[in-house]
């Protein structure tokens, strides 16, 4: 393949958590193998916050504000009196973190903040996005309208003279241009609460009150990662940075802004700036694309993709090599994705399970699970490093990803460079030793490998002091500049403006999505579908396990709907419904709840895709939400996933219930001797 089509013809897939183990992390192993072999087409950014991680370096000079460390919860409890939570603080999300969680801090930290007197406001279409013990005020905003609400809050601050002019003058650039836009001086449209109210379906007086309360008390602003997974998803996050700047709390203890408090365990937990245990990467001389644009890569060879000021010529992909992740879980518009996937000449998949990519592969290499190998679990957002002892020997013909790739590297002439002469135990000792030396460099002592392996974990002591992001910058911007062109918070970015992307000019703006309840398309598809992280599994992992299966309704993934929307359609709680739009259709089990605002339905991601041809259409009989979501980029800047801009219709399913097949192995044909 390399000789015929070049290195870029190989898409080095694998996106997904796959394992908390750092050595047997399938993506790292595969990329190491393909990189040493000459290179491959790789993927950058992620599905979780791809738009935000492209935007924030332009605006704040760092992605720490969305990846951590962010201002810790202890500081919020001591100093904040108000926390505005755009997208809420979903309790279930705090159960997980990449690399595994040894310390589940999220719920206790939130509870302490509430007990200390912090008032929470849940700005979300779903009341359940904040735990009941927070006693949060619920502002049931219309999905995808957050940027309009935030701009209107800025308008209220300015017109009532409540903005922090000192902070704006010392620590930001571009405020006057943004202010002119907010007041309507730039385009003749004042972004007032009265303007925003019909867009957000939040009363104008509520918007004014929130602005006044935020200006009158120490306030922390947060937004979940999901908020930017929408058309123009960069806009609400940029607008929230502007709001935090206008309030003047950035860099103050317990105040300012931090993204992701409600997205993963460890956000806001005091931690030392130490590296985690990781397999070293190898250089890849091949091209890279934003990860969520993989279908465009497969569909449009030779065409140009604009991304973050660059034009990327898309190579022709002739081979996909995937390991340790399920793109038919996390990608959008799965029917389109399958058509693009099937264009490729050869697909190789390394998998323990009969997931969708394994079912559609030309070659399947059976890989071990976490229970069949030794490894080290580590996360930069957790204070424990864990020894992951093998529980059972490899089953059947399963092999470790490293071992099978090492044998292939031998056939290709670079085994020694791939393995560096180490087996599994030697690699674990080597990686742990590197981490131990890094800890020592920062004055942190951890046990040697033998003691760590025997005791089962190593604990990193917490820092002696609390952490406030951007505190040095706020005290003295000249001495502690941000890593932006101006050294300040860029409320107007000359860099972004020079890209000349009409959908995202040099400052935050309101842009209507193509799919939201204010669009003409809503007449045909009048329900906004939100696809959220499940509470009964990790993404798509263990969907066939007892906990996930027990949550199903008649074998289908549950979907939340307001009782008024169900009554208008003659639908009953516990029934099976057909959910559809122009991209596809699925079956879901209906769960009625007044916790979700009318006009919105919510379906967890992670139900294994089970497409069957029924009634002349391809129907996912199990309820994978990504059959319905649209596969478009957030903008040419971030090119992130825009799954949360999705309109659907729902009707009763009156046919026989199809069998769920995806949790059973596919038929296997024995080769003739």
UniProtKB/TrEMBL annotation:
Q: Does the keyword Oxidoreductase apply?
A: yes
InterPro entries attached here? Asp_de-COase-like_dom_sf, CT_DMSOR/BSOR/TMAOR, MoPterin_dinucl-bd_dom, Mopterin_OxRdtase, Prok_Mopterin_Oxidored
Q: What Enzyme Commission number does this protein have? A: 1.7.2.3
Where is the Molybdopterin oxidoreductase domain positioned along the sequence? 6-410
Which Gene3D superfamilies does the record match to this protein?
A: 2.40.40.20, 3.40.50.740, Dimethylsulfoxide Reductase, domain 2 (3.40.228.10), Dimethylsulfoxide Reductase, domain 3 (3.90.55.10)
GO CC, one annotated term: outer membrane-bounded periplasmic space
UniProt keywords, alphabetically: Metal-binding, Molybdenum, Oxidoreductase
Signal peptide range: none
Names of required cofactors:
Mo-bis(molybdopterin guanine dinucleotide)
Query: Which terms does the record give in the GO molecular function aspect?
Result: electron transfer activity; molybdenum ion binding; molybdopterin cofactor binding; trimethylamine-N-oxide reductase (cytochrome c) activity
Q: Which residues form the Molybdopterin dinucleotide-binding domain?
A: 527-646
Q: Which GO terms describe its biological process?
A: anaerobic respiration
Q: Where does the source fall among the domains of life?
A: Bacteria
Q: Per the similarity annotation, which family is this?
A: Belongs to the prokaryotic molybdopterin-containing oxidoreductase family.
Q: What is this protein called?
A: Dimethyl sulfoxide/trimethylamine N-oxide reductase
Native source organism of the sequence: Roseomonas mucosa
| Primary gene name | dmsA_2
């Amino acid at each position: 393949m390399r000789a015929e089509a070049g290195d870029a013809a190989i898409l080095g897939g694998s996106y997904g958590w796959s394992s908390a183990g750092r050595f047997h992390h399938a993506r790292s192993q595969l990329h190491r193998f393909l990189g040493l072999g000459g290179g491959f087409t790789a993927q950058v950014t992620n599905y979780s916050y791809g738009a935000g991680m492209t935007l924030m370096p332009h605006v704040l000079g760092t992605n720490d504000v969305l990846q951590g460390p962010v201002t810790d919860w202890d500081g919020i409890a001591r100093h904040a009196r108000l926390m505005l939570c755009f997208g809420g603080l979903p309790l279930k999300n705090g159960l997980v973190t990449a690399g595994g969680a040894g310390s589940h801090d999220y719920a206790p930290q939130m509870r302490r903040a509430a007990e200390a007197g912090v008032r929470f406001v849940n700005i979300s279409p779903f009341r359940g996005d904040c735990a009941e013990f927070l006693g949060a005020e619920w502002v049931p905003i219309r999905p995808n309208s957050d940027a309009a609400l935030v701009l209107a809050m800025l308008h209220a601050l300015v017109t009532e003279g409540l903005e922090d002019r000192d902070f704006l003058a010392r620590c930001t650039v571009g405020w006057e241009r943004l202010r002119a836009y907010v007041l309507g001086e730039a385009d003749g449209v004042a972004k007032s609460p009265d303007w925003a109210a019909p867009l957000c379906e939040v009363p104008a007086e509520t918007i004014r009150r929130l602005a006044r309360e935020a200006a009158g008390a120490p306030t922390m602003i947060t937004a979940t990662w999901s908020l930017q997974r929408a058309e123009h998803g960069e806009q609400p996050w940029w607008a929230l940075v502007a709001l935090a700047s206008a309030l003047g709390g950035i860099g103050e203890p317990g105040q300012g802004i931090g993204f992701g408090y409600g997205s993963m365990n460890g956000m806001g937990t005091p931690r030392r700036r130490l590296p985690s245990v990781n397999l070293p990467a190898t250089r890849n001389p091949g091209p890279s694309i934003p990860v969520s644009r993989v279908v465009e890569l497969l569909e449009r060879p030779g065409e140009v993709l604009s991304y973050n000021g660059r034009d990327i010529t898309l190579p022709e992909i002739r081979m996909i090599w995937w390991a340790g992740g399920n793109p038919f879980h996390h990608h959008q518009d799965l029917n389109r994705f399958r058509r693009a996937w099937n264009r490729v000449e050869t697909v190789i998949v390394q998998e323990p399970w009969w997931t969708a990519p394994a079912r559609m592969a030309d070659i399947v290499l059976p890989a071990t699970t976490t229970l069949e190998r030794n490894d080290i679990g580590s996360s930069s957002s957790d204070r424990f490093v864990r020894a992951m002892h093998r529980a059972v020997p490899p089953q059947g013909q399963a092999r470790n990803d490293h071992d099978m790739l090492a044998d292939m590297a031998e056939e290709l002439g670079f085994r020694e460079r791939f393995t560096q002469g180490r087996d599994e135990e030697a690699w674990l000792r080597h990686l742990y030793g590197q981490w131990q030396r890094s800890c020592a460099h920062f004055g942190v002592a951890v046990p040697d490998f033998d003691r760590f392996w025997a005791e089962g974990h190593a604990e990193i002591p917490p820092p002696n002091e609390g952490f406030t992001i951007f505190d040095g910058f706020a005290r003295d911007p000249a001495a502690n500049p941000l890593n932006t062109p101006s050294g300040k918070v860029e409320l107007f970015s000359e860099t972004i403006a020079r890209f000349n992307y009409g959908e995202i000019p040099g400052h935050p703006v309101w842009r209507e999505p193509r799919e939201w309840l204010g669009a003409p398309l809503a007449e045909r598809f009048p329900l906004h579908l939100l696809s959220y992280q499940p509470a009964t599994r990790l993404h798509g992992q263990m969907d066939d396990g007892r906990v996930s299966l027990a949550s199903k309704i008649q074998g289908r993934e549950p979907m939340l709907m307001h009782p008024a929307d169900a009554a208008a359609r003659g639908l009953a709680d516990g029934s099976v419904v057909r959910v559809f739009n122009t991209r596809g259709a699925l079956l879901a089990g209906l769960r009625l709840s007044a916790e979700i605002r009318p006009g919105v339905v919510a379906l967890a991601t992670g139900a294994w895709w089970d497409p069957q041809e029924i009634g002349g259409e391809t129907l996912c009989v199990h309820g994978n939400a990504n059959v319905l979501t649209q596969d478009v980029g957030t903008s040419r800047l971030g090119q992130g996933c825009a799954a949360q801009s999705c309109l659907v219709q729902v009707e009763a399913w009156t046919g026989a219930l199809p069998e769920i097949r995806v949790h059973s192995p596919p038929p296997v044909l024995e080769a003739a001797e």
